[in-house]
Amino acid sequence: MADLHYNRILIKLSGEVLSGQHQFGIDYTVVSSLAKQIKEISNHKTQIGIVIGAGNIFRGVSSESEGMDRVSGDYIGMMATIMNSVALQNQLEKIDCDTRVMSALSIRQLAEPYIRRRATRHLEKGRIVIFAGGTGNPYFTTDTAAALRAIEINADIIIKGTKVDGVYDSDPMKNSNAIKYESLSYKKVIDNELKVMDLTAITLCKENKLPIAVLDINKTNNLKDFLFSSGPIGTTIK
Question: What's the predicted TM-score (pTM) here?
Answer without folding.
Answer: 0.92
